[in-house]
Structures are given as C-alpha cells and as structure tokens.
Amino acid sequence: MSKNKKLSLSGGDTAEKFIYKPKDLIWAKMKGFTPWPGMIVEPPLDLLAQQRRANTKCVFFFGSRNFAWIEENNIKPFEGPWKDELAKVSKPAAFRHAMTDIEKYIDDPAEVDEQINDSCGVPNHATEADFDKIRDGLDGEENAADEAATADGNNGVVPHVVGSPDEGDSVENNADSSASPSAAVTTTPAATGKSGGKRTPKAKSVSAVSVSKSAKASASKSAQKRRVSAHQTPSGASSAKRGRRVASGDVAGDDAAGSSPNARRRIETDALMATLAAKRAPNAIALLDRPVVTRPETQAIDMNSRSNTLADRDIVPSEQTFGFLGLGMMGSTIVKDLIYTGHKVVVWNRTIDKCQPFVEAGAEVKDTPMDVVEAADVIFCCVSDPKGAKDLVFGNCGVLQLKDLNNKAYVEMSTIDPETSTDIGEGIKQCNGRYLEAQIHGSRQEAADGMLIILAGGDRSVFEECHSCFKTIAKNTFFLGNVGNACKVNLILQTILGVSLVGLAEALALADRFSISLNDIIDIFDLTSMKSPLLLAKGKEMAKGDFNPQQPLSHMQRDLRLVLNMAENLDQSMPVTSITNEVFKHTKRLGYSEHDSSAVFVRSRF
Fold it and tell me: Could you tell me which CATH number the domain at 308-483 has?
C-alpha cells in the first residue's frame, strides 16, 4: 500500500490519499456501522452486478466474512495512528471476533485466502481485467503495459462486466451501529480473485485525473481502443447509465483505433455468456441456472375412445342442428360426445387443423362464426375468456353480422363475468335471437366422462331444447333464472377451488421441507373428514410432479381475476382470494401458465 499527499478537489484542504491494492488490510466504514477490519479483494461476480458509486473498492470483512462495495473516503489502512482508537476492546463481541480473525490472518493468511477461493469454486478465477478482456475480445498475448495505460486513461476506474442479477444482495443497512456488518451484507456465492500470471490494474488516486495532453498523445493505439471500449456495453451501446464518464480525448481516439490493422475483434454476446458460465461455480448465480419450463404437449383428441358412463346413458339425440364455436380443451371433448350420441354438429375454430378429426367423424366445418349461425338452429360457444366470447358475437364475421337470427338460440358456455354475459344476451335479443348462459363446471376428464355440472340462466325454452345435449355431457343441470346468475355461481365455486388448491399446495410444500412423504400425507388426508376427490387427485398430481392440464392454471387465475372484479363492484372485501390470485399470477410468471392448476405447488415449494 503506497501513500501520497495531495490537495483534495473539494474544500481545498490537504488530505492523505491512498492507493489500495488487493490483499491490503484496511478499516472500512459502512453506513450504520462502526469502522470494521477488512481487506481489499477482487469483487465476486454477484457484487459486480450491483450498482455502485465511483471510487469504490470491494472489501472483505473479517469476522462476518462478507463482501461489500465501500467508498474510498470510508477506507483507511489497518496500520496507522488511528488503529488504537478504532480497535478499542469495549466494542461488541462481534467486533472483538473480527479483530481476532484479522490477527489470525496476519499470522497465517492461508485459511482466509482458501475460503475466498473456495467461495468462487474455481482455484484460478479471473479478475475484473480478465472479464474486460473477454468482453472486448482481447488476445491473451496483450502485455501488462496496455493494461496500465488503460487504467490511466480511465482515471483508475476499471469497467466491469455485469454478471447475474441478485436482487437479494444489499450493501447498506440502517441497523444499529453496534451490529455486525453480516446483518447488512449478503454473502455472495461466487467471488473473483487473482488470476495467475496476470496483473490487476491499480485504482489511481484523484491526482491521476490531471494527465497532460502530451502523455495522451504518446499512448499506443491499442490503449486508445481499450479506453473507448471500456465505456461501452458488450453490444456496443453506451454505458452512461452505469455512471461512466467518457473523456473527450478518449472519444476522439476511436477513429484512430478503428483504422489500426491490429484492431481487436468483438466477440458475440453468446460467447461472452458461455465463457462466464464456464468460469462460475455450479452453485453460483442460481437464477441463470434455473431450468427452462417446457410447455405440456398438446394431446390430440381421440375420436375412437368411449366413456363407459356415457355409453350406459339412454340418450335420444335432438333433430336440430347444433353449431359449436371453439374447439379448445373443453369444446373439443364436448363436440366429440355430441357426435358420438348422434347429434348433427357444425363446427368452427380459429385453427382449422383442429377441425379435421371432427370432419372425419361426421361433423361439418364452416369458415366463419357467421356461417355456423346460418347453418345451425342452436349455436354453442366455448372459448377461453370474456374478450374472445365478445369477439365471436360482435366482431368481424361474428354472430351478429346476421341482422336477423330468426329466433335461433345462442348458448354461451365460456367462463365469463355477469356483465359480459348480459351484454352478449342483449345483443342476441336485439337481433331476434334467444340467449342462454350455460356455465360448465368440471375438468377435461369429467367432460370426457359426461360428468360435468351445467349452471344455466336466461331463456327457459332454450334450456329445454338443449336437454339432450346437456344429458350427454353433464351429470346434473341447474336452471338458475335470469342472465348473470349462472356466471355468479360458477365464479363463486371457482373461488372455493382456487383457495383450496393454494392451501393444499402450501401444506404439501411444508411437508416436503420436513422430508415427510407426500404420499403419506395424502393417504392420511384420505382417511379424514376433510377428504375430497378433487383435492386427493390434485394432491397426487403435486406429489408426482405431473401437471398434465385438466384445468389450465391460466384459466384458474382468470376466474379469480373475474371474481375479484365482481367483488370490487360490490365493495366486498376478499383478502384471501386476492392473495390466492397473486400466487397463481406468480406461478404463471414462472412458466406454468399452460400446465394444470395443481402446478401452483411449484411456486409454494420453491
């Protein structure tokens, strides 16, 4: 550690300034803490990702053995006239432990040095300058003189490559000053150290700013190139947001460096990230190592399979023609059952390929929803959300493009809110049509077995005309009166289901943390009065990690959102439902939108 005296740029007073190098023992002062014994080290990768002010050093704290960025004006050498004052034994036990730790390091540094190396997982890990070389595509043959000229041109600030973000890291804390820095500094899983045979550019003192123009003119072209690239991100964009100051002389030297025959090549971002990944330990930057969630495979409809429950029913098909808009997970299963029981069906779907199996089974395909309305007597609609339901009615080539529906019936089976159902019903009635909302409650397997529950509201005559269809797909049907009532009841039932699933997921996640067999929990649950066929089935799916969609998680979150909107209109407080909705939203963000709703267990577990 070298010392030089110079004038401070602020205030004009004379002050001592020090140039710190790695392995220098120092006193470091963090906000909210007393000065603490530490050591200048190369920063870990996670610490490089944090925003930091200019003129900061990475400090390793003894005792707590954590890392943090500390401004140089809050750092003093360990040895000096201030040591006796700062090392008073009247301080807390954590401080006394830190003093003992640094004294042991002075006597035998091997143990602490090994710990710093092991925290990165790589014995010969790279320095900041090495990562700069990777970023700028420098050869391993660049000499140390080029590195020194670069540091001089950048006022002693070495640009860093941003590693993996870690939002949990923090280097400041307003805790009581008697506390240990370990309460404020998050331990980093990976740290960078010195690379064998390579020099680390030294951070220059403030006096290094005043460099003469003649010295700049004599710098090599490679040094100029190095200075310019130091102010750029890997993609070539300006890094002004990181607080870098670009000197006018550096920018002017860009043209000269670009014309040099030895201009260094830029490597691609993918190659940079691959190099960084190869250098970090397996447990470093876990966020980047998180596996990618694959979408569940779309299961093709099996037109040859038959439900035993459905085969046992005595169903007499209606002579009317039934149109069906939407061949999604539920729609395709319902149409298959209608065709199997002898109903005449006309279908439409946005993706025409999904219609082919039904054509082969005897259904007729139309090009637009309007064409289906013209060909059918009763039109069913089953799409994924309220917006899609409205588009099919009011949109281009939609149902209401026919100004006169000639008393035809329109049955809305999509899960929608009461307001949307009312709007659709009014539109149908204005065009001389009849409207029925028929909310379906159940899973895909229940639809295949004909075990759904139908909640209907609206025109009673339409409900009677659809009797053979409802008998095909449902075990029970309920007519609940006016339009909107069925939607309300269905969403209330979905609220109970969503809250129950999150409770089950969190309970099983807790059991998993205790290393208790999830299958044992489910077996015991089956013996209690709380048992439910649905929760038992979902619990088994959670235990197996099998999230093959029976009811997509995105649909469950949609239903919870509709419930909260409905409650908001009534000023009804639903705090548990609101939290449940947030849990499902977070699970969607993790990539499980198209998996079964039981995938909420993943979020609860991790």
Answer: 3.40.50.720
Question: What residue has token string 């029976």?
Answer: 550
Structure confidence at residue 132 as a pLDDT band (50, 70, 90):
low
Per-residue pLDDT at 344: 95
Are 122 and 279 in contact by the 8 Å Cβ rule? The answer is yes
345: Cβ–Cβ under 8 A, 6 or more apart, which residues? Answer: 321, 322, 323, 324, 335, 338, 339, 358, 362, 363, 364
CA distance 463 to 472: 14
CA atoms within 13 A on the CB side of 356: 5
Pairing of strands 14-19, 67-71: unpaired
**Sign of the alpha-carbon dihedral angle for 463, 464, 467, 469:** negative
Alpha carbon separation from 127 to 133, 197, 199, 275 (Å, rounded): 10, 11, 9, 14
Residue 88 DSSP SS3: coil
Structure tokens at 7: 């004038």
C-alpha count within 13 angstroms, C-beta hemisphere, residue 457 = 19
Q: Mention every residue, 6+ apart, whose C-beta is less than 8 A from residue 74.
A: 28, 29, 30
Q: Is the dihedral of CA 143, 148, 139, 134 positive or negative?
A: positive
Please write the tens of the pLDDT for every residue from 352-377. Answer: 889 999 999 999 999 999 999 999 99
List, in sequence order, every residue forming a beta bridge with 365; answer none if it has no partner: 347
- Which CATH number describes the domain made up of 490-605? 1.10.1040.10
Intrachain domains 24-125 and 308-483 with the same fold = no
Which CATH number is 24-125 given? 2.30.30.140
Which residues, at least 6 apart from 514, have a Cβ–Cβ distance to it below 8 Å? none
Residue 125 CB neighbours (<10 A): 23
Residue 180 neighbours by CB distance under 10 Å: 21
On the question of pLDDT at 33 being above 90, the answer is no
Higher-confidence residue of 46 and 59: namely: 59
Amino acid at 101: D
What's the CA gap between 37 and 445, in Å, rounded?
65
What pTM does this model have? 0.55
Query: In angstroms, rounded to a whole number, what is the distance separating the alpha carbons of residues 362 and 277?
Result: 56
Q: pLDDT digit string (tens) for 369-419?
A: 999 999 999 999 999 999 999 999 999 889 999 889 999 999 999 999 999
Residue 510: in which H helix or E strand, if any?
Answer: helix 485-513
Q: Break the chain into its structural domains and give their ranges.
A: 24-125, 308-483, 490-605
* Closest C-alpha to 217, from 256, 181, 262, 270: 256
Distance of CA 50 to the CA centre of its chain: 19
User: Residues with Cβ < 8 Å from 374, sequence gap 6 or more?
Assistant: 402
List pLDDT tens digits, range 549-565: 888 999 999 999 999 99
